Amino acid sequence: MSTTMESRTATATFDRSRAEGFGDRVLAALNEASVLLMMSIGHRLGLFERLSTMPPSTSREIAAAAGLNERYVREWLSALAVGRVLEITEEDGDVHFSLPAEHAAMLTSTGEADLSVFAQYIPLLASVEDDILRCFREGGGVPYERFERFHEVMEEDSGQTVLAALHEHILPLVPGLRERLEAGIDVADLGCGRGRAVLDLASSFPASRFVGYDLSEEATDYATAAAQARGLTNVRFEARDLSDYDTTAPPAAFDLVTTFDAVHDQARPAALLRGIRRSLRADGVYLMQDIHAHGRLTKDLDHPVGSFLYCISLMHCMTVSLAQGGEGLGTMWGRERALPMLREAGFRQVEVHRLAHDFQNDYYVARP
Predict the structure, then answer these.
(1) Beta strands 349-355 and 358-367: pairing type?
(2) What are the helix (H) ranges across 139-195?
(3) pTM to 2 decimals?
(4) Kind of pairing between the strands at 186-190 and 94-98
(5) β-bridge mates for residue 88, sequence order
(6) 3-state secondary structure (DSSP) of residue 347
(7) CA distance 43 to 115
(8) How far apart are CA 327 and CA 310, in angstroms?
(9) Which H helix or E strand runs over 144?
(10) CB of 148 closer than 8 Å to CB of 127
(11) How far apart are alpha carbons 64 and 61 in whole angstroms?
């Protein structure tokens, strides 16, 4: 009797319109995810850049201009036309495709922001799905080396969020920093990846001395080759596990330490922060860029890209930390956790800044 009544109650309270609305949302998400995958392909092949310079053209003309196979180009164009990314017209039985200027502004390097860069994360993360499933069942993590293109994509990502704002917006967060860099100081960039930020700084401030550390040897080798190609002699890169940085960091060695989107995926983030404090001179500064979040799910429900960031956390940042036997702090650790960790690491003065161009990150200025 009780079971029957519970079943009737559940049926009576079932909201059919809500279920149908959710079904519509899933179908819309399926379409939009497919658009992102097509955007990733278009970005990697340079097709958006090509289309932005062409008049309305047929698939044959576009394929010929790009030096690509027409059949594949036609299907790609069709997917994005149906997805309302491209516009079409028909003349004499031929379909002509064009990229609206407003869309080109968001999908090419000459526009306001190339959002197709971020579309690359979708196939990149999907490539380790089987590894993540194993981790669900067995624990552990997925190591950095399984993410074949991660540093390549991160290099493009940081080129828009960090490099583009480095001199005009980020360095001015620390009063007098530019003058110190011009005079000559010692700088370390931890979790440097392919080193775009530190290479730019080394080129801009030849009197200063720079070092970049990253767990990935592929990334530091790439950065070293880039430094040599530019003829830079004031910067070096080293593949280094920073898990024990609290004890291995060189004491009082640096005037400035930077981390750009790097702390939350470390094996032992608290140890890294203690090591940074240990490595700073008395008048040194630590500049940290990390994800803007609260660290509490109830406060992050309305984050504009919250689902995306939790996905990246699950399928990269958290899991690479766990693969090292680490804490798995996760992408969305947030300032409510960051601020106490900075204080516990020995930083007495901490300021948190937001930048108008960057809704995704917080910028911390910490001093001993």
Answers:
(1) antiparallel
(2) 150-161, 177-183
(3) 0.89
(4) unpaired
(5) 97
(6) coil
(7) 9
(8) 16
(9) none
(10) yes
(11) 5
Amino acid sitting at position 25 = R
Identity at 89, one-letter amino acid code: T
List, in sequence order, every residue forming a beta bridge with 97; answer none if it has no partner: 57, 88
Report how far residue 19's alpha carbon sits from residue 15's, in angstroms, rounded to the nearest whole number. Answer: 6
- Please name the residue that has the structure tokens 């306001």: 112
> What Å distances lie between residue 72 and 17, 30, 39, 175, 351, CA to CA?
39, 21, 14, 53, 51
Can you give the pLDDT of all 368 residues of the chain as single tens digits? 455 555 555 556 899 999 999 999 999 999 999 999 999 999 999 999 999 999 999 999 999 999 999 999 999 999 999 999 999 999 888 999 999 999 999 999 988 789 999 999 999 999 999 999 999 999 999 998 899 888 899 888 888 888 889 999 999 999 999 999 999 999 999 999 999 999 999 999 999 999 999 999 999 999 999 999 999 999 999 999 999 999 999 999 999 999 999 999 999 999 999 999 999 999 999 999 999 999 889 999 999 999 999 999 999 999 999 999 999 999 999 999 999 999 999 999 999 999 988 889 999 999 99
Q: Which domains does the chain have, with CATH numbers?
A: 2-109 (1.10.10.10), 124-367 (3.40.50.150)
Residue 245 tokens read as 């940085």
CA triple 20-23-24, angle to 5 deg: 90
